[in-house]
């Protein structure tokens, strides 16, 4: 079993990122814990509701219930990106060229790399945001589908429709496929070149974590007693294909994190256990023993030799795969 360095934190771990190589834990109580030395900064007056790593990996973007969007670097410096009064910022995304997107209710805002602000009103609340890998284009998940928006242009929003509530959205690394997690405990996807729908169902719980494998061959997901990995390397994507299933246990998988270079994935469970599983033969390695608290965040270091994790209780740690 690899060596685990425990890092007891002050509260619910919303997310974890490697910011300029430094493991950075985003906490629900409004704090950000930097590295292993116990350094903590508090960029928000209230709680942090969402976070995203900047495209260059040099800062973390956070949205809070104080109505602020903040950018924090590895040295603990926090700067204001935007402020929306008393409106909660419950979803954020980071894009190319330093762009930042966030949403409050039906209003979606993009602050581009020059600092210019663009706003869009959606028919219903925006529940998920993600940028395309190239160009300033944003996918917005909400009720009855996804809107694709080019901020700062007169181009109409392209609507990808599917009935139901879409609570999160992700894009394949090549930008060819849009996939959402739904309130109805399923995934839905669209192939952009021809609008082909992709329906992925059968989950016993909502999918709250999605992670693309290296080169985008698989989309790994939480929401079951296994991590379900949908194959996207076939002509019709996952349609008509059996998904790969990893790490079967009685406990639910709550978080997934695909390795940056190899076809392996870290799987976090609702009892705090973390397993490492290889796609080719499903061989498993125990990374962390159960601690009684659901794993709520995981991230790989850039070289793939360290895994940072956090749990709902505030339990957290660094797993060194070289030891």
From TrEMBL:
Anaphase-promoting complex subunit 4-like WD40 domain: which residues? Answer: 260-321
Output the superkingdom of the source species.
Bacteria
Residues folding into a coiled coil are none
Enumerate the Gene3D superfamilies for this protein.
Answer: YVTN repeat-like/Quinoprotein amine dehydrogenase
InterPro entries (UniProt xref): Apc4-like_WD40_dom (IPR024977), Quinoprotein_ADH-like_sf (IPR011047), WD40/YVTN_repeat-like_dom_sf (IPR015943), WD40_rpt (IPR001680)
Extract the Pfam families matched here: ANAPC4_WD40, WD40
Q: Which PANTHER family match?
A: TRANSCRIPTION INITIATION FACTOR TFIID, TRANSCRIPTION INITIATION FACTOR TFIID SUBUNIT 5
Can you name this protein?
Answer: Anaphase-promoting complex subunit 4-like WD40 domain-containing protein
Q: What is the lineage of its organism?
A: Bacteria, Pseudomonadati, Pseudomonadota, Alphaproteobacteria, Hyphomicrobiales
